[in-house]
Amino acid sequence: MKKLTLKVTIEGGSSQLGIYYKLVKRGHTSDPVQKKQSFEEVFTDLNGDYTLYIGGGNADSDKRRAIISLIFDDKEIALDKDLSYANPSTQKGKHIYAEYYFKA
What we know:
The protein has strands spanning 4-11, 19-25, 33-35, 39-43, 49-57, 65-72, 78-79, 89-91, 95-103. It is an all-beta fold. The N and C termini lie close together (10 Å).
């Protein structure tokens, strides 16, 4: 079973606007999911080409920092490093955004 864990850590408070993520499989779309604080989401039974979008507001404090990490539990999942953001991605601005492209 191919599995991906998305881990988003928000430091310096919580996101007032929320953090949204959406996993899209080629030819299929899903509704975005909103979180206000750090979270971990596990996606299982992956098979195909995917795009993962993460975006939203960072914490309001001056010491804000968001860390976005993808953990692949299967060596057969290949992240397209030319198109994807860094993994992990550390973002310190008021807004966060990252896109990841991979094949499972």
